Amino acid sequence: MSKPIRSESPAGSGLQVRAIPTFSDNYVWLLQRGMRAVLVDPGESGPVQRVLDQLGLTLEAILVTHHHSDHVGGIEALVDGRAIPVPGPKAEASKIPTLTRHLVDGDEVRVLDTRAQVIAIPGHTLGHIAFYFAQEGLLFCGDTLFSGGCGRLFEGTPAQMLASLERLAALPEDTAVYCAHEYTQSNLAFAQTVDKGNRELADYRIQIDARRAAQMPSLPSSIGVERAINPFLRTGLASVRNAVTAQAGAALVDQTAVFAALRAWKDDFRPPAVA
């Protein structure tokens, strides 16, 4: 398994972020200030506990974006009966019994001497939330916005997911995007199928391929990068709309219809085999 990767907060505030790889392609995000730590979406406990022990960190809270097991499965073992706060989505509380605080859109969470705004982003699941640390410029968005893509619509509607992505895309462009899966290379292969003439996308794919070849995470991305390269944030553009319309074989004028057809296209997409 890859070693945890450390990166400084873009704001240089002393808050650090580490990627802890779990399962085949998940990341648990570890926020660290000094010897204090907060986790985001620990789907399994073993790799996370090893990092906490190795670094001698004290776990102060666990933030949860949604109820899927690969995001919450490690919470009980990590808490281990201690009074550790576990804030997460109120709308999914019945599915996440380890929650200690039930969050709704606009709530604020205070951890590690800073605070995060709660943003409701339904679509992947109905109660999905994100944590936005405005002062540090950090966004933890679970399975809603991926670099070059977005999450599948397991519970929500295309209109809900599109609105959620638009909320995230409206954040400052230098906001660092920490999503929960290493899907970037496959997402970019699809993005180039849709948005063939996008030079920024082509350049970004080269950068990401180099990072992955060096066994480095592709993340974080940024809101500015995603606005430039992510077709799911660009469904209002003629180039994306025309590609989706041609694929669907029907005129799609409404942006929600374009988004729905784009997501359906991605669901069935398989990257071409390498010769």
How do the strands and helices of this protein lay out in sequence?
Layout: E1 5-8, E2 16-22, E3 26-33, E4 36-40, H1 46-55, E5 58-63, H2 69-72, H3 75-79, E6 87-89, E7 101-103, E8 108-111, E9 114-120, E10 129-133, E11 138-142, E12 145-146, E13 149-150, H4 158-169, E14 176-179, H5 184-194, H6 199-213, E15 221-222, H7 223-229, H8 238-248, H9 255-267
How would you describe this protein?
The protein has 275 residues and is an alpha+beta fold. 32% of the residues lie in helices and 24% in strands. The model has no long low-confidence stretch (mean pLDDT 94).
Question: Count of DSSP E strands?
Answer: 15
Task: Give start-end ranges of low-pLDDT stretches.
Answer: none
Spatial strand sequence of the major β-sheet: 8-9-10-11-14-15
Percent range for helical residues? 25-40%
- Succession of helices and strands: EEEEHEHHEEEEEEEEHEHHEHHH
Summing up helix and strand content along with how strands pair, one would put the structural category as alpha+beta
The major beta sheet can be summarized as: 6 strands, mixed
What is the number of helices?
A: 9
**Mean pLDDT over the full residue set:** 94
Straight-line N-to-C gap: 28 Å
**Approximate strand percentage:** 15-25%
Query: What coarse outline follows from CA principal-axis ratios?
Result: globular
Write down the Rg: 18 Å
